[in-house]
Design a protein that fits this description.
Elements (H helix, E strand, L loop, with lengths): L8 H14 L7 H35 L1
């Protein structure tokens, strides 16, 4: 007999997101909202990464002088 498989953290987050979106009225499609959220998150990560790289470059240039 197989034991129950525990869900990973990403799976649990997606389940919670699906449950939250299930309460939305009208014809709002979950997949579109999830995709929009993923795109917005990706843009935020790229922006933060770019700022971090710029900060490191400025520090390196300041230490060379």
């Amino acid at each position: 007999m197989r034991g129950l498989r525990r869900k990973s953290e990403p799976e649990r987050l997606l389940d919670n997101l699906g449950d939250s979106l299930g309460g939305l009225p009208g014809g709002t499609r979950r997949s579109r909202l999830v995709k929009a959220g993923l795109i917005a998150g990706g843009v935020a990560v790229l922006t933060a990464g770019s700022a971090a790289i710029s900060s490191l470059r400025r520090r390196m240039e300041a230490s060379d002088s």
